[in-house]
Design goal:
The chain is α+β, with helices and mostly antiparallel strands. It is built from three helices and four strands, in the order H-E-E-E-E-H-H.
């Protein structure tokens, strides 16, 4: 007997789409990969070219999570204070703002 959970099919489809998107980004890598690590984390970083310009692809080999950030998103990191990053670290794998929260 195979156990299944509600939303399993959707999860599998989303994972397949994400893997395909990551593969496409890596196919357009520019330059060498950089690995940054310490006793708490390791990330791989590389520049990728998209039809909308360059992005920085940041991957966590341990978790399998990744994100591709445009220059404006990267600049937005410089606008943050240490408390923002503390909140991000304190809520791993979750957004700072819930998607269900509507702007007023």
């Amino acid at each position: 007997m195979t156990l299944r959970w509600e939303g399993e099919e959707e999860d599998a489809q989303a994972a397949a789409r994400a893997a395909a998107e990551r593969g496409d980004l890596l196919a357009h890598r520019s330059g060498e990969e950089i690995v940054l690590a310490n006793e708490f984390a390791e990330v791989r970083i590389c520049r990728v070219e998209t039809r909308n310009g360059s992005r920085l692809l940041i991957e966590s080999p341990k978790s399998g999570q990744w994100v591709a950030l445009c220059p404006l998103e990267l600049e937005a990191l410089t606008w943050q204070n240490p408390q923002t990053f503390s909140q991000m670290i304190g809520r791993p794998f979750g957004p700072l703002i819930d998607a269900d929260t509507e702007e007023e």
